[in-house]
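Entry 14. Ran structure prediction on the chain below.
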Amino acid sequence: MTETLAITLVQCNQIVGDIRANADSMLAARDRAAKMESDLVVFPEMNLIGYPPEDLVLRPALIERAAKEMERLAKATESDGPAMLVGSVFVRDGALHNGVALLDAGRITATRFKHELPNYGTFDEARLFAPGELPDPVLFRGVMLGLPICEDIWHPAVCRHLAEAGAQIFVCVNGSPYEIEKDVLRIEGVAKRRAIDTGVPMAYLNRVGGQDELAFDGASFVINGDGTLAAQLPDWEEVEVTTRWVKGKNGWSCIPGALHRLSDHPEDIYCAMVVGLRDYVDKNGFPGIVLGLSGGIDSAICAAIAADALGPDRVWCVMLPSRFTSQESLDDAAECAKLIGCRLSTIPIQPAIAGFDEMLADDFADMNVDITEENLQSRIRGVTLMALSNKFGPMLVTTGNKSEMSVGYATIYGDMSGGYNPLKDAYKTTVFRAAEWRNEHKPKIGLGPAGRVIPQRVITKPPSAELRPDQKDEDSLPPYEVLDGILLGLVEHEKSVDQLVGEGFDRETVTRIERLLHIAEYKRRQAPPGVKLGARNFGRDRRYPITHRFRSA
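Output, structure tokens:
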């Protein structure tokens, strides 16, 4: 009768669709786990093909390749060393399933399929997969393992069924994207409840890394049957931990191990932006990034994020002054680039502005100068930066925050141009908090310099697009503290104008912001991707029609 068990949790990154490389990485992890005398090495949800695969799983060639690689992984377990629990896509009776395979003694000894398919927010698994039946436990070396998959533990039915069927340990593999305070929700709101409800301990394994607009924070853990935390893996880092389990008179439990501190706010947001940008650039094969450094806070923090993600030597900042650019902004941009340690070029755009003025003179005759000329400056900057990207290869990073994107305070084909936006889901007030935090801390995953990276004046001066004399953002928008409060209500919580007025906001202001939010939808549809931070990011979480006339006022 087995009295001890060693389970290695591999909190790892993966590349969607790079099936051979993912399999090779798992074999290497198995070799390392063998040296720890592990019995079972576990990988995150769908780790063989990468998660989320989206419509790639509809490609028969991908299904075939995944099946061949799974057989190769299974054959590898003929040699001494641990068994493997591997997530992938499976076909049964013509239907696709999100599932796991237990590989041992050179073969696939068991498969289990995900029962609860999430179909909300960033998830649309019900569109791609068929739900598996309520899964039964798997007998592994004398121990009954319950194998719920991610969403399966967010509802009580699967864990209760497994416990009633004799499960002694839950091993739950996940692809759970980062979201503010989600680490607490996973442990306190879900895993502890399932463990206490059933009396069965749980090893919860999550992946780490960026995939398009999602960042996975890892933060895997083990909960014993009494609800106590036995192990806490770090967030935002790849790590392999071998957990030791013993059978006592009250059943199985995990011997307590290291409890790593998880990132507090806003460190967690900053790390999500770093990981999202890093993996987007690296997995898509860019040599680095280029961005317009204006002397303002948004571009400054994007430059800092890029340096922490890629290293300062892969960051190219470009100052693109017009006649409205202040000497203060020029100085602040130069100091910021110096603090970060990245390259800075200066390309004045006045010659291009003069060229457009001459080119449009006849058609613009007798017309007043207005926002058209302001937007033209932004578009000239976008064209210039894209030219540098095309010529030399770095990806253009765009720097608009969520407050601006919400109300359309951004120029399409201008400052919205780019391949990726780290701030897409960060409100302006969040940008200020993150900048203050970064000046006082170097993130544990950061490749940038320690110490201050953003000049203090950049943080404290009134924000301005500098597209006309003495321009300030608050000429067109409410103060950001007010604007962000309104937007949190309208976007994250779907509140009406009346509800927000009841909370103390001015009716005319809320009505105007709601209108701006809706009419800017067409811009957001054409915006580059950016990492999800909150509960409702634009794109995957919040899918509004461009054309509609609903207003809650």
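The first helix runs from residue 19 to 35. Will compare against last week's run tomorrow.
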